[in-house]
Amino acid sequence: MKNTLFELDKLCLTLPDGRAIGPLSLALAPGEILTLMGPSGCGKSSLLAAIAGTLSPAIRQSGQGRLAGQSLSGIPIEQRRIGLLFQDALLFPHMSVAENLAFALPASVRGQARQNAVRAALKDAELSGMEKRAPSTLSGGQAARVALMRALLAEPAMLLLDEPFSRLDSRLRQDMRDFVYRHLQARAIPALLVTHDSADVPAGGRIIQLEAPDA
Ligand SMILES: Nc1ncnc2c1ncn2[C@@H]1O[C@H](COP(=O)(O)OP(=O)(O)OP(=O)(O)O)[C@@H](O)[C@H]1O
Fold this sequence. Notes:
This is ATP-binding cassette domain-containing protein. The longest helix is centred in the last third of the chain and has 18 residues, at 170-187. The model has no long low-confidence stretch (mean pLDDT 93). The protein is built from five helices and nine strands, in the order E-E-E-H-E-E-E-H-H-H-E-H-E-E. With 215 residues, it is of the alpha/beta class. It is globular, with a radius of gyration of 17 Å. A hairpin with a 2-residue loop joins strand 4 and strand 5. It has helices at residues 44-52, 97-104, 111-124, 140-153, 170-187; strands spanning 6-14, 20-28, 33-37, 60-67, 70-71, 82-85, 158-162, 191-194, 207-209. Strands 6-7-8-3-9 form a five-stranded parallel beta sheet, sandwiched between helices. The chain has a single domain, classed as P-loop containing nucleotide triphosphate hydrolases (Rossmann fold, 3-Layer(aba) Sandwich), CATH 3.40.50. The structure holds adenosine-5'-triphosphate (ATP). Adenosine-5'-triphosphate binds next to helix 1.
């Protein structure tokens, strides 16, 4: 594929019981959102964990991931520049909204620039003026928007989205999909989306259908 930012070349996982997930090969262009679907237990979350670098050591991995021209093999999690969003916002409960956002900023962003970045992220999250609020006082949709902004402030080269909309009620889901896809596309950040809900697939987006692991 022309203009590939992320690619997987025959990523294959072997579970402790010998079953194999994959091989999975794919390529993502900047800003592209590719959806992984498949039955429960087919290995969607494990594949994302392998890409993020958080896979259980009990699962063997072969095949390569490359992000922005660099192999991910042997690269520690914190150096991968891969952001994660899950079903739950997972904000730090002991920190304010602004502290949650500032936590994600690279150390190279200092002083006034840090405050400006947090303020801009709050505005993008449609939460201006709520910097001092505790995460427990936010609605589900507000917390989900902060979680996306926190992931983006870390300046990821790509995002992994593991059922990020599944806990939101149906009224909020469409708003949140539009919100996430708009911000990823504006920043040309590619993403892999795991979902059971075909309504989550962005318009015109590609889908890879996974099958249950081979015995
Ligand atoms: N640490 C582990 N040790 C052994 N087996 C594991 C481990 N983690 C996951 N598995 C197994 O790997 C398979 C794939 O699990 P995974 O959670 O990746 O599936 P999934 O497609 O994301 O499922 P769901 O849609 O239900 O979230 C399952 O059979 C699961 O039991």
